[in-house]
Amino acid sequence: MYAMVTIKDVAAKAGVSKTTASDALRGGGDVSAKTMLRVRAIAEQMGYKPNVSARSLRSGRSNTITFLTSGIQGSYFAEVATYFAEEINRRGMYMLIELTKFVRDDAKQKIPFPMSDGIIATNALHVERLLREHPTVVLENYDDECPYDTVNASSAAGSRAAIRHLAERGCTRIAVVGDNSGPGVYPGSRDLRYESARDECRKLGLRFDDDSFVRSQWSRQGGIETGHALADAGMPFDGLYCLSDGIALGVIRGLNERGVRVPDDVAVMGFDGVLEGRYYSPSLTSVRTDFSTMARVAMDLLMRRIEHPDDKAARQCMTVGYELVEGESTAR
């Protein structure tokens, strides 16, 4: 029988204290990135598994994080939730998923997450009371007045890159497709993506007027209907930048049903970079968010708030990187 590897064993192998090893594995404390990576690599090599039950008894915490979102339908939310589940599990913790439509934000409802140490919230800012009563990190928020630590995608830089990509593919009449009226009380990614794309078009000397913003419901079905409408209007654009992959995939379907060829008649691209787009026909060109880094950074911020509840450190706002993944939908 093999002896169980303990945190003390990992610390000894790494040449650090037990406290430093514990902080490195949890992503908390004042541990350098170099030390954190070394300790985690050694722990994985040794087959270390944290004793979650014992840790919970010692700390008075549940080691559970709630992922609070407006919905989990569609590839985007499922993919983001998966990256967070993997990151949370890697830290020896557990993740719960809750939908905001089941949460009332009034004094009559008992806070539904007494077992959670903290919350990762996306499209959930209308439940302000709930967020105030827990350590919270928000995803995709662009208001400087937001009181919570925030981790964002590269909505501005990615959108500008998308417009440049379409222009480099010969597109001269580009439309932005989506809806910039976000679901929260603070400005969100929809606003910034639209504004950045519009400004980049004008910077490149491309025509962009009121007709260049094509309103579409934020869904696959909305994209299909928009594709139909654009085709029925004679397809007045040769490039479409959709503010999400879900909209883009719907638009491609809608155009195809009306006989409009992508990318021959019009190039189409999206934002998010969900894996589903790679298996579509044509495969989707998209601005892919670095979801792995988003999950890691968000959890680092959240653990700081959980472990130091009396620390009134200023709000942190982080932006993760992106990659423009070329598919067939813009191949010219």
From TrEMBL:
InterPro entries membership = HTH_LacI, LacI/GalR-like_sensor, Lambda_DNA-bd_dom_sf, Peripla_BP_I
Domain named HTH lacI-type: which ranges?
A: 5-59
Keywords assigned by UniProt, alphabetized: DNA-binding, Transcription, Transcription regulation
Q: Which PROSITE patterns match?
A: HTH_LACI_1 (PS00356), HTH_LACI_2 (PS50932)
SUPFAM superfamilies, alphabetized: lambda repressor-like DNA-binding domains (SSF47413), Periplasmic binding protein-like I (SSF53822)
Q: Identify a single GO molecular function assigned to this protein.
A: DNA-binding transcription factor activity
Q: What is this protein called?
A: LacI family DNA-binding transcriptional regulator
* Protein's organism: Bifidobacterium aerophilum
